[in-house]
Amino acid sequence: MVEPTRRDLDRAVENSMDMFSRARVGAVAAVVPRRPKSVLLAVDGSSQDAFGAAIAGQFRQRFGCQVAVVDAREGDGAGNLAQQTAKSLVGKAEDKGSGDSFAQILEAVERSKCDLLIAPCPYGRDLEAVGPDSAGTVIDVLLARSPVPVLVVRKPYQPQGDLFHQVVMILAAENEMAPEAAAWAAGMIAPKGTFHLVLVLEREMYENVHALMESIAPDMDVSIDSLSHALARNYMRLHRGLQKAAAETGFEYKLKLQVEGEAGPIAAADASRPTLRVLALERSDHVSEGAVQARIRQSLHPVLVVCRRPDAGDV
Amino acid sequence: MGLLAEQTHVAAPGWIMGLFVVVMLLTYVGVAYKGLHKTVAALLGGGVLVLLAVYLGLFDYHEIYEILAKDLNVFGVIIGTGILVDVTGGSGLFHFLSMLIVRATGGRATLLFLAICGLTFVFVALLTIVPAVLVLCSLVLVICRSLNYSPKPFLLAVAICANSGAIVTFASGLPNIMIGTAAGIPYMHFLLISAPYAVVSLGIAMLVLRWAFQRDLPWKQDAEERAQLEAKISEFDPWALVEDRWVLTRSAVILGLTVLGFALAQPLGLGMDYIAMAGGTAALLFAGRGVEDTIAKVNWTVILFFTGLFLVIGCVEATGVLEKLAGAVVAMAGDKPARLIPTVCVFSAGTSAIVDNIPVAATLIPIIKSIAGMGVAPEPLWWSLVLGSNLGGNGTPIGSISCVIALHALKKEAKISVGWGEFIKLGGLIMAIQVIGAVVYLLLLQALNAFPALT
């Protein structure tokens, strides 16, 4: 029979061995879905406010959480937007502060003792005008300082039925916040929704590793597949934990290994319906910070960024 | 195949026959020679013979399309099953199932050995040799590292048991597809005739392997050892291999329906190639993989190899030499199946161990057709060729792709080399017993008049 070349054979055996090695996860507990008990919604009078309010309203309905609203626009002429929105959400309006918008929002986060912040992105600027060029200073600072996860609202979707039928959690490298982000994502997905865990191998990372390995071990064949499998191995316990959570909670769960630029759930997300994107942010990691910024800017879908409290210890 | 021979029955002059046979044999040497790619050897041989045939006036150039057209169904089966196997393999179905079963053994050497042999047999029957052996070899290497077993007995078991799995069904291996297509053997006949002997040959292989490796594995393990193994093997969770449960389920359903389709092809009045292509199309539609990526993984090397090979055989057949050879076989062995069965079975096994079972099958197919034209019942001869050409692969380290893959993986990943002498002692012995058993089995079926007639 016509046999594969030695190189193809080696690669096929290694890939298959990698796959079997991934099964060695030991005992894994189901990811425990994390749901907000108290939500703070930041409003700025933009077209995104309605969708942000719809998300907060739905969380209140589904999880029975408290809702607070803050209008953090700079200056005094903001009117009673926070009160009106809070009234419609059966929530509480936070007192308007002074100073920079990000400082007002962070103060409100502390005062309200919320465990999730929902904010339009870019805050106080027109999304259409800014486009994918910037997430805005307010969001940049919130991502750097917020003690709670931040759900940024991009395109002002018309809310219809249960939100977040599709949740896409994206991981591109080792990230210590991944389990926490997965717990939040599993908590927010709509009943019977679909959860995609997408492990993306970035071409830049592959090229860097390949170049380094070529100088360290020239005989070693570092392929995109082998790096992709390594990334997958890193997250197999999380994958198994999410599988178990899916079985217990009733949502559909899929794992996708993807090389950057390939077709997959990220690109395939229905642009007419909001897909919740979930990102884990390691604040001390510049690569993680840069990747989160870039993905928010490029996304029209709402993005949940889960990060460690600035004063928290190791996860 | 065989335009001139079939259409006019005019044999070419002896020197042309000799020349074509020499080029054919040189092609086979090229196929067996490591320094030349098999596909290049086959295309080169086909190209030279077409040129000779046209310029020596054997046939007009356009007739090569008729040569190839007769085997289009083989291409259909290869492409369809190739897509199906790639999609179902990529779904993780076979990784999942094999890990599930291996975990159920608790890591005990005896049960693990039985599981690996059984899995190899079943996976080859469903997937064909190359993808099945790749899965099993990698499984063995990972599990043996974890449990501190030598991978050698298990990998040799994979190499050898694969050739038993290859005779289970019509679609288990390329020789079966070629022979089954040329002879018009329905899928169900494989389950009636070759599958039972596949099980027997598996039993023979397992017994000899168990005896040969009696000192290489801890066949008897006490309660404490078993508990330790259980703890180690339970670290593997097969569900972690499942990326998408629905893709896995859909892949299993499509594969199952395709196997059912193969079994029902004849009553439905459809060809195997249609069923294979339908299965491949369903896999592309429903199994959640990128269409372009999957189509790109169709084994074009095999298809080009067959293109060259079919041209070689078609050209040689056109000289009438294969018909002459068939006459010589009947003259030597007589027209009695009791003599033709061992002749075909032993010859095909012996040559398959040295060259490659595909050219052997391709060469013997027109010869058996010619023998059948001399009033000899062809059914026993087709089955002799199926069993002989597949089981012959156990004879040498290069006799079968399963041996090539397993021995290469053993050397690369475990730094263990198995020499020709060592392999022939084991594989050659198993092949000899299996081939003798096959001859006895076929003679018994002949005596009982139990071969289903081909229409």
Shape of chain A: elongated
Taking the sheet with the most strands of chain B, its summary is: none
Query: Rg of chain A from C-alpha positions?
Result: 21 Å
Record field, number of beta strands of chain B: 0
Structural class label of chain A: alpha/beta
The overall average pLDDT of chain A, rounded, is 87
List the main descriptive attributes of the protein structure presented here.
A: 315 residues, alpha/beta, 12 helices, elongated, B: 455 residues, mainly alpha
Question: How is the secondary structure organized here?
Answer:
The complex is a heterodimer of chains A (315) and B (455).
Chain A: H1 6-21, E1 38-43, H2 49-63, E2 66-71, H3 81-88, E3 92-93, H4 101-112, E4 116-120, H5 127-130, H6 137-145, E5 150-153, E6 166-171, H7 178-188, E7 194-201, H8 203-216, H9 224-234, H10 236-249, E8 252-259, H11 265-268, E9 276-281, H12 286-298, E10 303-307
Helix pairs in contact in A: 1-9, 4-6, 7-10
Chain B: H1 3-7, H2 14-32, H3 38-55, H4 63-69, H5 72-90, H6 93-104, H7 109-127, H8 129-147, H9 151-165, H10 174-183, H11 187-212, H12 223-233, H13 245-268, H14 272-286, H15 291-296, H16 300-318, H17 321-333, H18 337-354, H19 357-372, H20 379-391, H21 401-414, H22 420-447
